[in-house]
Write a structure and sequence with these properties.
- It is a single chain.
- By secondary structure, this protein is α+β, with helices and mostly antiparallel strands.
- Helices cover about 35% and strands about 30% of the residues.
- Helix 3 runs antiparallel to helix 4.
- The chain is rod-shaped, with a radius of gyration of 57 Å.
- The chain starts with 10 loop residues before the first helix and ends in a 34-residue tail after the last strand.
């Protein structure tokens, strides 16, 4: 049997042969590659990095409002819970749920028949007591006339009594001189005494008649008070009858009906007496809170005039304008904020009670603000910076001082000039001096931005991209 292993004396020779063959192949390949002129030229030229595609925006100088941003809640200008003030059967509903109603428009009718009867009874009582007044006044007039007659009789009887006393005295003197008989003197004395008693009786009659007159006057006053009470009862009955028809107290929009026709309505202030809730939505409030540190600034600008508030409802692009009409009288100690309300005409009814909106309170307007898109602002260890496009092909990293940010725009205090172009997309791949290619939305090349201010020459075409290095 033949062994497959080589003798130990031949193994080094095989390894040397294989190494020599590998060196020969490598030298041959190197000679071949060295003979290619194109590859030799490319190996001498360094590779240029490709231009970075970016999106740019101009630096603008324009009027920018100084605003305070907040989340606002839309509130109805006024909310009325329509409740029944009298009980009874709800006989008719004159509107539909969610309908717009005007002030004074009829909403509900409650069965008026019990209140009609109460009014008729009150009016009958009034008529009866007015008749009693007439009777009391007639009795008063009669008794006053009786007093006058008694006073006249008293005066007559006093005169007769005085005359009788004079005659009785004269005849008593004649009796003492013996000129008349005793009987004749006694007769005149008796007549005088009788007339004096008549005077006393007349005086008693006058007192009695005067007491009767005073009683009649009291009866008249009592009847008059009864008539006043009857008038009040009639007025109350009319009011109660008026409560059977319920009208809208404001212009607004109705909510859900709490009770329908045929239900029995309860009177009073209980919750089950509420029939419908009406919200006034024209005009309407937007309520929002701001930090208490902003209160002095708001008060200062508000002293110069009305402050505008812009409200943007969810899902919309066009904000609505209103004015601040209310500042709360106290700061909320739990949150350190103060509540403000702005009034909006809401003519198109884009604001709805309970809705959340983005509210912007405009304090003043900066007429010459330097503005860039907020997407251009970058943050680093040295602070905030932007990439400015130079000569339409390269970028420079420039530090900026941000004054404030409002929405998607940032106001720059220092570092930029109007007319310059800044990168708003593609910054992660940029360094100072990097080449860029301005792209329009969609990835197409765009014209290069201007190199200087707004009066610089027109933009030129974007630089061509360097060819890709081809491997050998």
């Amino acid at each position: 049997m033949r062994s497959s292993a080589l003798p130990s004396s031949r193994r080094p020779i095989g390894r040397i042969a294989r190494s020599a063959f590998a060196l020969l192949v490598a030298s041959t390949l190197s000679a071949t590659l060295a003979g290619c002129p194109r590859d030799r030229a490319e190996s001498k030229q360094p590779n240029r990095p490709p231009a970075v595609p970016v999106a740019v925006a101009p630096v603008e100088q324009k009027s920018m409002p100084v605003q305070i941003q907040a989340i606002g809640t839309v509130e109805a200008y006024s909310v009325v819970s329509v409740r029944a003030q009298v009980g009874g059967e709800l006989t008719q509903v004159h509107f539909k749920e969610g309908q717009d109603v005007k002030k004074g428009e009829l909403l509900f009718t409650i069965d008026p028949r019990p209140f009609d009867a109460a009014l008729a009874q009150a009016e009958a009582n009034l008529a009866r007591d007015k008749g009693l007044i007439a009777q009391a006044r007639a009795a008063l007039d009669r008794d006053r006339a009786k007093v006058s007659q008694t006073q006249a009789a008293l005066a007559r009887d006093k005169a007769q009594a005085k005359n009788a006393d004079v005659e009785a005295t004269r005849y008593a003197e004649l009796l003492q001189r013996g000129l008349i008989a005793q009987e004749q003197a006694d007769q005149f004395r008796t007549t005088a005494e009788s007339l004096s008693h008549t005077v006393l009786a007349d005086e008693a009659d006058i007192k009695s008649a005067e007491e009767t007159v005073r009683a009649d006057e009291a009866a008249v006053n009592s009847a008059q008070q009864a008539v006043k009470a009857d008038d009040a009862a009639v007025d109350n009955a009319k009011i109660q009858l008026g409560y059977t028809t319920i009208s809208s107290p404001i212009d607004g929009r109705t909510g859900s009906l709490m009770l329908h026709e045929g239900n029995v309505v309860r009177s009073g202030g209980t919750s089950d007496s509420t029939l419908v809730v009406i919200n006034q939505v024209q005009p309407i409030y937007v309520s929002f809170t701001v930090p208490q540190q902003q209160l002095p600034t708001i008060k200062r600008y508000m002293a110069d005039g009305r402050l505008e508030v812009w409200a943007l409802p969810p899902g919309e692009t066009q904000p609505l304008k209103g004015v601040v009409t209310f500042i709360d009288n106290a700061v909320d100690q739990t949150t350190g904020t103060i509540r403000l309300k702005a009034t909006f005409p809401n003519e198109e009814r884009r604001l709805w009670p309970g809705q959340f909106v983005n509210a912007s309170l405009t304090l003043t307007v900066d007429p010459n603000a330097i503005v860039v898109p907020s997407a251009a602002i970058q943050s680093g260890q040295q602070g905030q910076y932007v990439f400015v496009v130079k000569d339409g092909s390269t970028v420079d990293m420039r530090r900026v001082t941000v004054k404030r940010t409002q929405g998607s725009e940032t106001v720059i205090a220092d570092g930029l000039k109007p007319g310059e172009s800044v990168v708003v997309d593609g910054q992660p791949r940029l360094v100072a001096g990097a080449r860029v290619e301005v792209r329009r939305p969609g990835g197409r090349p765009a014209e290069s931005p201007p190199r200087g201010p707004a009066d610089s020459p027109p933009r030129g075409p974007a630089p061509a991209r360097a060819p890709a290095t081809k491997s050998g």
